[in-house]
Known about the structure:
Blueprint: E1 6-13, E2 25-32, H1 35-47, E3 52-55, E4 61-63, E5 67-73, E6 80-83, E7 86-90, H2 95-104, E8 107-108, H3 120-125, E9 129-130, E10 133-134, E11 139-145, E12 151-155, H4 167-171, E13 174-181, E14 183-184, H5 187-204, H6 224-230, E15 237-238, E16 241-243, E17 251-253, H7 259-277, E18 286-288
Amino acid sequence: MIENFGTVYENVLQKDYTTYKLSGTIKKVIYPNSVQDLIKLLEYLNKEHLKHKIIGNGSNIIFKGNYDGIIVKLDKLNKININGEIIEVEAGYNLAKLAFKTANLGLSGLEFAAGIPGTIGGAIYMNAGAYQKEMRDIIVEALLLKENGELITFSNQNLNFGYRTSILKSKNLICLKATLKLCHGNKEDILTTIKNNQQKRLASQPLEYPSAGSVFRNPEGLCAGKLIEELNLKNVSVGDAVISDKHANFIINKGQATGSDVLKLINLVQEKVKQKYNIELICEQEIIE
Ligand SMILES: Cc1cc2nc3c(=O)[nH]c(=O)nc-3n(C[C@H](O)[C@H](O)[C@H](O)COP(=O)(O)OP(=O)(O)OC[C@H]3O[C@@H](n4cnc5c(N)ncnc54)[C@H](O)[C@@H]3O)c2cc1C
């Protein structure tokens, strides 16, 4: 019984679990009570061959349709320990919250993350970044869980960080905890940097609508949004999924968009960009089937 490992909800709406606020359902969601319960839960789910997927804040995911498995949410894994410039934090801790918390302590390094609505685990998984900074710059090591239940600590170098990727993606590893190193700075300067970054986001991104941030990776030396804009694809829609007229690399949900609508729009953009420029745009967002 998965109820032994955390709080379970049945037949929930995807709109409450995705920043896209997708229409659709999820059969079950479980919030493990602790890292120990998460480990036991995953062991149980694997042993019983129960379909499942770990998510963080759902700010980089698209459900392909109704999800008939178990979504594992890490919100209760949010312990934190700050010791000078060293921070130990569990995977479910909110990244933007951590950026403000550390800024207010006069710790510099997470200014880039204040506008990224993910969790520590999700951010390490995809090496989240902005303004030429990324998770790679501040991670010392991460405690990971392998599929076979083995716990392993990987140093920054072993995490194989790349552009919006890490070893977690390729090797199906679960992040339980991370150690970050920030550096002492001037609190007012740190908060000003965050404020300036937020203003840049507000000016250039359609934050008034549900989305999951940038849809496509930037191809080497190019800007995905520019390519899409040059093809006059702004405002093109499938159902309520629409290419933003404020930022062409954002798909926004104007009401009842499903994951399938978003995916059709993604395919359409990929086809047009391939036809015109012979470039394969790679989707940055994770598709959950
Ligand atoms: C308005 C907006 C702005 C954004 N701006 C940026 C930006 O500037 N830069 C940027 O990089 N991203 C940005 N994003 C995208 C997103 O916030 C980041 O990718 C974030 O890191 C995703 O974290 P999450 O916890 O929401 O992960 P989720 O979306 O919940 O999951 C994403 C993937 O991570 C995996 N995952 C989650 N937790 C774990 C874990 N503990 N262990 C292993 N795998 C895990 C999931 O299985 C899934 O495959 C933005 C999104 C929005 C909505």
